[in-house]
Design goal:
four-stranded antiparallel sheet, lipoprotein, transmembrane beta strand, OMP_efflux, about 475 residues, Efflux transporter outer membrane subunit, transmembrane, 11 helices
Length: about 475
């Protein structure tokens, strides 16, 4: 129509002088954060890198399990597949603004019964180039590039989470072993007490009630022992699932190291919460997803504007008896959306709503990151302060039990007093193991809350590793 033809010179001039880009230009949102941690920083909050923190445990079994988990993890495989998919989409988007060229050819014979056979051959070369008048292609490239960066950050987040989960389960298993050893010692001690009490009751030196009391205590200790054994077995099953190792091989690895809770070196961290933005891959992923959502607004906006393409073709046809004919064509093609029932406007509104949703998700992720870090700081500080008190309590309850046991053997203390002293000693020792375990687990939680030392620059390494 004449309206379209009148626009053609204008759009051609725009294509030659420079193209517009519709949609918002993305800027990372400013998130309000406190200038410093509100919780106490362990060890003075000295600044240092968190990379290779697992080496500070100096536990070869833990290192071996971490390597096995990373080498065979469905979660990491899924994250790598997401990177490959995002990278393919990014490559596709980067090529979408280039001209396209296609070739075709045919060779056919025709004839009739008793007539001559004719032959016709043709070849054609077609080219087209859609000019990115309003930046739809550029916005699409921005969106795919941001999505790729988000998928790479997700892969790093999966690695950090997997390592923290393996280490936490390993620490819990070692604590379970220590608790099991204490329960076994307590059970053996109660068996000896039960034997001595049975002899005393049979000889008439002790009341039958003492026999009933020690039998009840022995049955309770046996039940506790069985429950603790089951907990240790459950931890082994979890480690099998996390590492992908066979259970016999895993048990061999665990048996190669003495049963002790690994003790990492002091956890170092930056004192400013803003560092979370560069240390936590999940926040990087959320921010890059937000950037992709912003770019998609421009993609949707560009669909509402005219589209201009330059097309050209070369053709050659040879027919027996008719000779050879050649032809060519070149010119612009303008497509102008006039009426689509409001679908293009709805697509823009949808893209803007998706951006607002991504923005809310990003802000929520930042708040959660600060919350996780503050909570881990509080718990780690509490466990660190409580450990010395709990250790003193356990040592003194153990000494009291040993003294009471000697008095009972000498006949100056009752069996009830002995069993009460035993329960107090066992409870205090359980509390010590628990607080020692928790101190390490809270350190791992803090390490994970700070992103495992990952930095945005590591995305380059991820590209090579995920290729």
């Amino acid at each position: 129509m004449s309206f379209r033809l009148s626009l053609l010179p204008l759009l051609l001039g725009l294509a030659l002088t420079g193209c517009a880009t519709v949609g918002p230009d993305y800027q990372a949102p400013a998130v309000r954060m406190d200038a410093q941690w509100q919780a106490a920083l362990p060890h003075g909050g000295s600044t240092g890198a968190l990379l290779d923190w697992w080496q500070s445990f100096n536990d070869p079994t833990l290192s071996s399990l971490l390597k096995a988990a990373e080498a065979d993890s469905p979660t990491l495989d899924q994250a790598l597949a997401a990177i490959a998919s995002a990278r393919a989409s990014d490559s596709q988007a980067s090529l979408s603004g280039l001209p396209t060229l296609s070739a075709s050819g045919s060779d056919s014979r025709s004839g009739s019964q008793g007539g001559n056979v004719g032959r016709s051959s043709s070849a054609a070369l077609d080219a087209s180039w859609e000019i990115d008048l309003f930046g739809g292609v550029r916005r699409s490239q921005q969106a795919s590039s941001a999505a790729l960066a988000a998928s790479e950050a997700d892969w790093h987040d999966a690695r950090v989470s997997l390592a923290a989960e393996v280490a936490s389960e390993y620490v819990s298993y070692r604590a379970c072993q220590l608790q099991l050893a204490h329960d076994q010692d307590s059970y053996r001690s109660q068996q000896q007490t039960a034997s001595a009490t049975a002899v005393s009751v049979a000889a008439g030196f002790s009341a039958p009630a003492d026999g009933a009391l020690i039998d009840a205590s022995l049955a309770s200790a046996h039940s506790t022992l069985l429950a603790q054994q089951a907990e240790c077995e459950v931890s082994i099953k979890s480690l099998v699932a996390l590492t992908g190792l066979s259970e016999p091989l895993l048990r061999d690895k665990l048996a190669a190291t003495a049963a002790a809770i690994p003790q990492p070196a002091s956890l170092q961290l930056d004192t400013l919460p803003v560092q979370l933005l560069s240390q936590r891959p999940d926040l990087v992923s959320a921010e890059r997803s937000l950037a992709a959502a912003s770019a998609k607004i421009g993609v949707a906006e560009a669909e509402r504007y005219p589209r201009l393409s330059l097309t050209g073709s070369l053709s050659s046809t040879t027919t027996r008896g008719s000779g050879n004919s050649q032809g060519w064509s070149f010119g612009p093609t303008l497509s102008l959306p006039i009426f689509d029932g409001g679908s293009s406007k709805a697509a823009v509104l949808t893209a803007r709503a998706n951006y607002q949703s991504a923005l809310a998700s990003y802000k929520s992720a930042v708040r959660s990151a600060v919350e996780e870090t503050e909570q881990a700081l509080v718990r780690l500080d509490s466990a660190t302060q409580r450990e010395s008190s709990v250790a003193a309590s356990a040592a003194n309850y153990r000494r009291y039990f040993m003294a009471t046991q000697q008095q009972w053997q000498a006949g100056s203390a009752s069996l009830l007093t002995l069993e009460e002293a035993r329960r107090n000693a066992l409870s205090a020792e359980q509390s010590l193991i628990t607080v020692q375990r928790d101190r390490v687990l809270y350190g791992i939680s803090l390490y994970k809350a700070l992103g495992g030392g990952w930095q945005l620059g590591n995305a380059t390494a991820a590209k090579g590793e995920a290729a």
